[in-house]
Specification:
about 190 residues, 7 strands, about 30% helix
């Protein structure tokens, strides 16, 4: 009976939004969710007075590539400045976690899924934030400015730089029954 309910729910998901991967393809789901999100919650360990060592989450615009199917690299890119409080945390400890959710897309509202409902898929990445090297700057710039054109006009005196999330661990919550673990190798080997 539970298997039948699972298959019906999966069929309903696919029928209502043909592009969403089936929940048994966790790596593809992780790529799909990241590619369809324009922002995420980045959690750092605070270096700020009064919060030192405590978790601190902040919202950041991100992109893994220009919009469109199969155009995402899977790498979350950011446009950052040292003036930002979370970036100051990252200068002390570059480890972070990043959560992205289909709740920011029309998908969950269309299906009346609360953001906490596992069917409103969300992905948690752990790793570190690193500045991109010169050879990757063009890729990061295209990925971010194609989705966030306002970024190009941000104040130059803020010394913006491109960074990426270096993924070490991935957890997928896209169905009932708990988190699924996806390795970075599995994640990068599939298309969204």
């Amino acid at each position: 009976m539970a298997r039948l309910m699972f298959l019906c729910a999966a069929a309903l998901l696919l029928a209502t939004c043909g592009a969403i991967p089936p929940s048994e393809e966790a790596a593809r789901m992780a790529r799909f969710v990241l590619h369809n999100c324009d922002w995420g919650a980045l959690a750092t360990l605070s270096a700020q007075e009064g919060l030192r060592g405590r978790p601190f989450a902040n919202i950041f615009s991100l992109s893994d590539g220009p919009p469109g199917p199969l155009s995402g690299s899977g790498v979350p890119y950011f446009y950052l400045t040292d003036m930002e409080i979370s970036v100051q945390d990252l200068e002390i400890n570059s480890n972070a976690s990043l959560t992205v959710s289909l709740a920011q897309t029309p998908y969950c509202k269309k299906h009346r899924y609360d953001p906490q409902n596992p069917l409103c898929a969300h992905i948690i990445f752990c790793g570190s934030i690193v500045k991109v090297n010169d050879s990757e700057t063009g890729i990061a710039k295209k990925a971010l400015f194609s989705r966030h054109p306002e970024m190009e006009s941000w104040p130059k005196d803020h010394n913006w730089f491109f960074a990426k999330f270096n993924i070490t661990n991935i957890w997928v919550l896209d169905y009932f029954g708990g988190l699924k673990i996806v390795t970075p190798e599995e994640y990068y080997s599939v298309k969204p």
